TrEMBL record:
PANTHER family assigned: ABC TRANSPORTER ATP-BINDING PROTEIN ALBC-RELATED (PTHR42939:SF1)
Keyword Metal-binding: no
Keywords: ATP-binding, Nucleotide-binding, Transport
GO terms assigned for molecular function: ATP binding; ATP hydrolysis activity
Protein name according to UniProt: ATPase AAA-type core domain-containing protein
Gene3D superfamilies: P-loop containing nucleotide triphosphate hydrolases
Superkingdom of the organism of origin: Bacteria
Record keyword Mitochondrion present: no
Domain ATPase AAA-type core: 9-74
InterPro entries to which the protein is assigned, alphabetical: ABC_Transporter_VariousFunc, ATPase_AAA_core, P-loop_NTPase
């Protein structure tokens, strides 16, 4: 995800996108059975979103991936089973 260039920068000084990359990378380092993400594309640039989509598609082949997102491009490109919460109901 292109974070190696930021190793000498304090976390608080990083942009939202770089912070998000660090958080996502730390999540992917673990070998969990279930991954839960809240708005994983928030703050990411287009290239990082494309990389994340490819990674999540691959991950979802063997793991359970749950996330919330308002990013329609992200949701459409994932092409996974999705549920929508609208008016307090899941559809």
């Amino acid at each position: 995800m292109g974070i190696s260039n930021y190793s000498g920068i304090e976390y608080g000084q990083m942009s939202l996108g770089i912070k998000k990359k660090f958080l996502l990378t730390s999540a992917f380092i673990t070998d969990a059975d279930v991954y839960i993400f809240d708005e994983p594309t928030n703050g990411l640039d287009s290239d990082s979103i494309t990389f994340l989509i490819e990674l999540l598609i691959s991950l979802a082949e063997e793991k359970v991936v749950i996330f919330s997102s308002h990013d329609n491009r992200f949701l459409q490109e994932l092409n996974l089973i999705t549920y929508e919460i609208k008016g307090g109901k899941i559809s």
